[in-house]
Every structure is written in C-alpha cells, then in structure tokens.
C-alpha cells in the first residue's frame, strides 16, 4: 500500500507544501491537531514501480511539481490535475535550469524531460565523464550549480557543463554533504570532514566554519540575505554570515 510516513517535505511555487514518501507523494496539510498530514496524489492506476520507490527529491517549476526516487520521476500538474510517470532506474538527482528539468542517473549521461512530448530523453553530450549528480542549486534562471558524488562542482546552463572555478581556487575538495545558493548571490557548501564554507559571488571564501560539529552537516537552507540555516546530526543552527556574530542556535542555547 501507499505509505504515510513523509520522508521529504517542500514548499512549492503554487503556495502548497508537498511531500514524498515510500510509494507515495502528494500535498502536506496541517490537520486540526496542528500536525502536518499527507494527502496522497497517487492515482489508483499508478505504475507498479512507484510502490517500491521512496520519493525523496522534490522540485517545483512552472510546469508543475516533480517527485523523484531511485526508480523514476512523477510529474504533477496542479492546474490540470494530471500526472506523468517517467521510469528511470538508478535516479540520483532531479534538478531544474529555469523551467527545464533534468534527471541524473548513476553513471549515465544527463536526461532531459521533454516538456512537449512528455518523454525522458538522454543527452549523450552531457555525460559528465561518468560522474553522477548528487546535489544542485539554481544560481539564476539560466544556470544551476551541480555537485557530483565524485566531489566536483560544475556550472550547467542546460546545454553545456563547465567547472566551477571557486572549487580549484579555494581547494574545496572532498565529499559534498550540502549545497545552497544564497539570496545575496553567494553559495554555501558543506564538505565531509572539512566544514561549512560560504563563497561570495566573485569566488572568494567569506565564511569558513571548520570545527568538528560542522564536519557532518545534513542540510542547508536560506531565505534571506546574511542568514543560513544549518542542520547537523544533533542540532539546527542559524548562521549569520558576514557579520560579527557568526553563529547561534540550539547548541549554544539561544532561542531562535
């Protein structure tokens, strides 16, 4: 059956909050008890592969909301209330460049979701040398920064892939844990065993938190300039970068 345990929750462009779970995807709404509850959008005729897929990756574009897991991608269009299914084995990451959606599968060239035909098309010219996209964050409407499982960063404009120059300039090597574009134009990234780094729009490091508690970051989020939310295995912190107070949060006992 369709599971109720929500593994991923994300606010989308249409004002709703969506969730992904094992064999299930849909809208997350607050119930009368104040708890977030799943409202499944999975139709009865959904393909069998969706039942065995944990939908842990969600993105939103003008064409709808996309839910992805290891066995494929589901597209939901709120306006027409229609669903499309894309079976693709070994999905690692979905991401957008503008309104174009791309799918990265393990050690395969990038695939593009054709917005007209609704087909998933492999682009042999975008092989990434056999690397697999693990994380992605939009830089603007035309470019997305991607990080691979092999620890490399690239700028992708939907047609070509180029190395992200700040990586070599600042020796930002290692396993990538989290990646987040910032409202002021910079980028935050976390590297396993190294820490949290904020890179300015011109490519220089403006903040580096390298003590042990930042070696195992699980997620990053940012909504306003100068503020970065950092999740680790045992705390959530609010990092104020670019100012005299660098960090405060649960671990330091400050109410946020």
**What is the subunit organization of this protein?**
single chain
Residues in helix, %:
under 10%
Low-confidence stretches: 247-256
Question: In percent, how much strand structure appears in the residues?
Answer: over 45%
Indicate the radius of gyration in whole angstroms: 19 Å
Shape: globular
Number of strands: 24
Structural class: mainly beta
- Cα separation of the termini: 39 Å
What features would you highlight for this structure?
256 residues, disordered C terminus, globular, mainly beta, 48% strand, 4-stranded antiparallel beta sheet, single chain, 24 strands, 2% helix, 1 helix
Would you kindly provide a written description of the structure presented here, covering whatever features stand out?
- The protein is built from one helix and 24 strands.
- It is mostly beta strands.
- The strands form six sheets. It has a four-stranded antiparallel β-sheet, with no helix packed on it. It has a four-stranded antiparallel β-sheet with strand order 5-6-7-8, with no helix packed on it. A four-stranded antiparallel β-sheet has the order 9-10-11-12, with no helix packed on it.
- It is globular.
- 34% of the residues are buried.
């Amino acid at each position: 059956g369709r599971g109720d345990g929500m593994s991923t929750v994300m606010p989308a462009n249409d004002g709703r909050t969506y969730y992904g779970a094992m064999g299930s995807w849909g809208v997350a709404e607050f119930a009368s008890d104040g708890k977030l509850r799943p409202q499944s959008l999975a139709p009865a005729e959904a393909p069998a592969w969706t039942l065995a897929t944990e939908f842990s990756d969600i993105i939103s574009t003008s064409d709808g909301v996309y839910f992805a897991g290891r066995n494929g991608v589901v597209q939901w269009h709120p306006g027409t209330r229609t669903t499309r299914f894309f079976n693709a084995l070994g999905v690692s990451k979905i991401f957008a460049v503008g309104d174009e959606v791309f799918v990265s599968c393990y050690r395969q060239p990038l695939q593009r979701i054709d917005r007209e035909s609704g087909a998933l098309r492999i682009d042999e010219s975008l092989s990434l040398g056999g690397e697999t996209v693990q994380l992605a964050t939009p830089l603007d409407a035309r470019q997305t920064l991607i990080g691979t499982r092999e620890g490399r960063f690239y700028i992708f404009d939907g047609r070509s892939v180029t190395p992200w120059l700040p990586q070599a300039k600042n020796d930002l090597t290692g396993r990538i844990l989290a990646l987040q574009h910032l409202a002021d134009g910079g980028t935050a990234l976390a590297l396993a065993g190294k820490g949290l780094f904020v890179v300015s729009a011109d490519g220089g490091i403006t903040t580096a938190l390298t003590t042990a508690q930042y070696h195992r970051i699980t997620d990053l989020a940012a909504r306003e300039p100068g503020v970065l939310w950092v999740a680790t295995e045992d705390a959530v912190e609010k990092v104020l970068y670019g100012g005299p107070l660098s960090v405060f949060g649960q671990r330091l006992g400050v109410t946020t």
